[in-house]
Amino acid sequence: MIAGVAQFENSDRSKTRNASGSAVPPVLSVKAGYERWAETYDHNHNPVLALEQRMIAAMLPDLTGKRVLDVACGTGRWFSLLAARGVAQLIGADLSRAMLRMAVSKLNLPLALIEADCAALPLKDGEIDFAICSFAAGHIRNLDVFAAECGRVLRAGAELFISDLHPDAYSAGWRTGFRDHRGAAEIETIARSCDDVVTTFCSNRFQCVATYGFGFDESEWPIFVAAGKQELFAAASELRAVLVCRFRRMH
Predict the structure, then answer these.
(1) Rounded Cα distance, 163 and 212, in Å
(2) How far apart are CA 93 and CA 116, in angstroms?
(3) Checking phi first, is residue 153 left (phi over 0); if not, alpha (psi -120 to 50) or beta?
(4) Domain spanning 25-249 has what CATH number?
(5) Residue spans per domain, the chain
(6) How far apart are alpha carbons 151 and 207 in whole angstroms?
(7) For a designed S-S bond to 147, which of 80, 111, 204, 244 qualifies (C-beta 3.0 to 4.6 A apart)?
(8) How many CA atoms lie within 13 A of 55 on its CB side?
(9) What pLDDT, in 10s, does the model give residues 53-80?
């Protein structure tokens, strides 16, 4: 599946755009959206991405000698952080060829790139020791199929980190999207509760170790300032912006 990330938007985004006379951004399909986004994906700092990366990086286990899978890897935002934990091999899988073309620049790492749907990974049963899926679960229509595929390729005892836009932020109007020379665009997303995600994975050979809801603090303030959105920081900081679910593959 395509790698995704939540673009921070004003929680009253649609009303503001309509009142100002601007068109509401079009909603693109997942594939079309990420194919278009790939060219600029690495160039714009995003507070939601920064928050997620800051919190998960502190929780990553030692991966020395492990075979690690980045599902919906996109341009490889997680590659260097995962490789720094001592991985034996890092596999990045994504359905977007444009995203993978951008990820090629990270090939100085012990890395293999695979163009594949997350529901049909060309990997052997139980060959993965750790996996992460960052901001993609909300784009997956059949989460049960994806969870079953993760249960197939991860070995017993392996951990899986799933991150996404927090349901609280989604309810407040935040959406996955970007802006490029053609204007603003959103990418279609399926709203799910934390319980929905946990129940689905626990029905597919996983145990939920923990769930976390993270909000902004002063670490993300400079990103708001750089984007000229500092007036939105206080309200945004009142919400949980990122959901992280930590699972372990059962025996």
Answers:
(1) 9
(2) 6
(3) alpha
(4) 3.40.50.150
(5) 25-249
(6) 11
(7) 204
(8) 26
(9) 999 999 999 999 999 999 999 999 999 9
